[in-house]
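Notes continue from the previous slide.

Worked example: a multi-chain complex. Inputs as given:
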Amino acid sequence: MLKRVLIANRSEIACRVIRTLRAMGIGSVAVYHLEDRGAPHLDLADEHVPLHGQVPSAAYLDQDQIIAACKATGADGLHPGYGFLSENASFAARAANEGIAFIGPDADVIKLMGDKILSREFARKLGIPIAPSATQTGSLEHFIEAAAAIGFPLLIKASAGGGGKGMKIVRAAKDLEENIRMAAGEAQRYFADGRVYAEKLLDQPRHIEVQILGDGKGNVIHLFERECSIQRRYQKVVEESPAPNLDRKLRDRICEAAVKLASAANYKNAGTVEFIVSADGTFYFLEMNTRLQVEHPVTEMVTGVDLVAEQIKIASGQRLSFAQKDITQKGSAIEVRICAERPEKDFQPAVGRIGLLRVPVGENLRFDGGIREGQVVTPAFDSMLAKLCCHGENRAGAVAGLEAALRELVILGVPTNIDFLARIARNEVFKSGKLHTGFIAEQAADLAPPLLAPADEAAAVLAALFGDADFRRVAFGVPEPYASIGAWRN
Amino acid sequence: MPPTKTTINGRSVDTEIIARRPALTVKVGEGVHVVTDIRRPSAGQIEFSLDGRVVRGWRFAGADEVYVRIAGNTHIINVARPGASGAGNAHAVNDIRAEMPGTVVALHIAEGDSVALGQKLMTVESMKLQIGVVAPRDGVVAKIHARLNSTFDRGAGLVSLAPAAGEIEPPKGNG
Amino acid sequence: MPAIKSLISTGSEDFRRRYAHNKGLAAALKSKQDESRHKRPQRDFDRLAKQGKMTPRERLNKLLDPATPFLELSTLAANMAYGGEAPGAASICGLGIVSGREVVIHAADSTVKGGAWYPLTVKKVLRALDIAIENHLPVIHLCDSAGGQLQMQSEVFPDKYMAGRIFRNQAILSKMGIKQVALVMGHCTAGGAYIPAMSDYSVIVRGTGGVFLGGPPLVKAATGQVMTADEIGGADLHTQLSGTVDYAADNEDECIALGRDIVAQFDRGPKTRIEQAEPEAPLYDPDELYGIIPDDIKHGFDMREVIARMVDGSRFHEYKPAYGTTLVCGYAHILGFKVGIIANNGILFNDSSKKGAHFIALCNQNNTPLVFLQNITGYMVGREYEIAGITKDGAKMIMALVGSHVPKFTVMCHASFGAGNYGMCGRAYDGRFLFTWPNHQIGIMGGEQAANTLVEVKQRQLEREGLTVDPEVLAKVRADTMGAFESQTNAYYATSQLWDDGILDPVDTRNALGIAISAALNAPFGVPGNGIFRF
């Protein structure tokens, strides 16, 4: 078993990993950029090592500093979390060369799954359905022709990308060329790789993914599916397990396909196989993420498995201690991502200082956060502040519990999407479980902030003013008998 | 006193105190409300009775905005502070003058440049100390009076900004 | 403390007639005040608008805390002077609340001759500053004045209680630690320039504010230089170069907001503690005062009925009720403040005078402010009363009054004639505030008495000289005397001359006294002690 694990990450996921390390009696090392001084993950960790660099986010990507930090602290394991270096094959290889257990799959698997074109080809050969698509192999003109042949609407994506960067939807042939060129340009800028590919855009598609655990010793199991269809700016905001209104047999077929893919790669670590599922029940392989997923807590809540603990055991060379038949889904769990953003302004990221933080507590609740009161939210990092998860005996219970918890949650000092998420939880279509990736756009009117009743507006304005020294002086600082006399003139 | 001007979630709302006895009566927007029993039950919490209905919420005042959370809805409120801009005398200053005698060692702007509040216009050296001369407001550089390496006396004009739009021309003397 | 039992029948013919009369007087007062405040040639308003300036009353409303009272003083000063061309004596003075602090506000009324100073302007401003000195109240000056009226310089400039006294008082205030803020929202020319200069804090509006000893015309006349007001003494010059003014504001709103913020920085010393209770409305409607006050100067009325409509809960602890009954004395609360009330219920006799002097002493012993309600035609005259010592008993009242260390307030309710004015704390007796009702008359004696006296004197003179007594000559003496008294004993003449702090609608008396008492408590009470009483 590993003795000391360095977490090459920050914020909530660093806290999340450290909690499991503590429970397992394993030492923890946090790294941080100056911008994150005072962040909660530093308090939780046994040790912490500063990272230096002009650009804060780049510091967490600085392989030299992180490897050096492992050596300096004697860490024999390295947990990359998600994002940053978590899917960087060369980093995984480098860690392995330095004798540090990288808590993730081998470099070649990362490389394979990290390339959308290669991974789709890998899946196709296994007989796993992939969406009709066109890959840019030769000239751009050639690719435009091939893309048009798929039919519209089409989705253009960066081959090396993710996170919605370089992604374009094309609904008519006349817009195709321009969009492909734009997508290629963005792909070049963001990922230094201008290759793009096109795939068929499904009508009201759902995003369903399967949680996988593989020990690299031939054992691969799935921990059922997660529904991640509620997205904005191509990023997930609400995730749940099990997926509502998903045919049991279809679900099993998707899970089997995921296991098949991971087995074929002799997968080691926790991983996620993502599918797109159309309303008619067809599904296509999208990609595989070779790391812990942001939304892993919903799987943990319904299966009772600590995925981080399993990651560490696998990285320590252990075999999976349970088999597929041991995994069952109990109840329903749902997660929302609390972000510093302005939903009413196209989810524009926001900055500020967390002045007030009150977190709801309950047996069915889980708040994975990496924030504290007084913390400054800067544009240096991702806008996600925390995740709030709720477990229920069934989906309705989980949604109701989540809605209540969102109402109770207080994060003030920076604009957040908390109220927007609560409105999703109250949305009738959402409650009925008829989900697809266009949900937020389709329900925009219902999800918009409601017009405040005058009395509620007055209540809010007065609540603000009653704490305002200038207003308080005017309201309460008038002595008698002047206060009693009021606006009298002689 | 004029009504207190606020914006709530981007909407303008004026608040005016109408009476203090027998209970605080305020006009918010178009509605008149009676407020009683204002309390702070715990840190960050505020509670009061509005027209007999209990309002309980959370409140945090940031540098510019006040965040209020009531019944699961967060509102962002800005409170206008009239007069705050004039407090430093710098708001509508057109002529930027030397606070001490010195030499211009660097010029960072040219005539006609748009400058922002706080932007460094020139660096001057005075008594072996280098000091940045910054713009006292947003504006356009109308004239640079002190050239590079020139010396100046205390009170000398260094830079003039063009009068701000809407500035009132002083009335011609009527004693 | 028992409530007064009113014996007034509001359904009586007397009540109705008096009500109609006094209601009419109150309406006339309101309309005179309205004119004095707002009636100006349109060009005066246009001129302000063109300069981007607010009217002084707009400024005042923006300066005061919302939903707070403003006790305006001497609203009708100069109403019978200068042919009526200086309404309110071209200035607005009063007591109000700014940033939670009680302050005196003095605003030049730039809608009247550019806020120029008339002799009565100076008297009114000096009175406001005296109020600030006596009651330790900060002063906010809203400056916008063309300076002294050159045509009346001999009545404005040279003497002790003329313009120079304003700046002397400013220095005294500052020395006493009583703050002053000048908000320069127009020109402060010549002597007026010293108002901001002598203030502890000052703000000037960029563009329209100017402070200079000589404005453009004077500078041109003296030096030949042609300069704008802003060039001679504008905001930037004074806040950046001369340091004469402390803050510059971009407009009047900002200037006022800054002024409010400056006042918010003031420390608040402890107020003098007197007995106080929760304010409580009178049991009887103050509106009924109109039906109580007589419609004839010669008619008397029971002052207890007035007290019942002025004090908290109409409760009154009457002192020595069966003795000296022409003077009603007792304790009550006005807007929560415990006061001792001394009210005339007829001519002052020996017993009522001694009771009054005694009660003044009791209130001093008890740290209770005194409120005088005047309706006095004088002390009783005649040999019998002189033998009983009516003059030395009146002197006792004056001695007790002047020796008082508690603040005193006077309301002129109906008549104030002769020495009764003195014993009942007339203007000369340093009461903190003195207000007049519109029906009131004041003089050394009543017009009729004076006419009778002078006719008597004339008749004896003619008889002494052995001339025939021509009834026509006597009638002329009578008519002339009556006429002169008529025009100079009425309340509007008194207030025009600033013999009071303003005419009050009787129903406003309670609030005015409440504010006046509260203001007075800002200063410590004086040193107890009396001169020699003539026993």
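Summary box: The radius of gyration of chain C is 25 Å. The mean pLDDT of chain C is 95.
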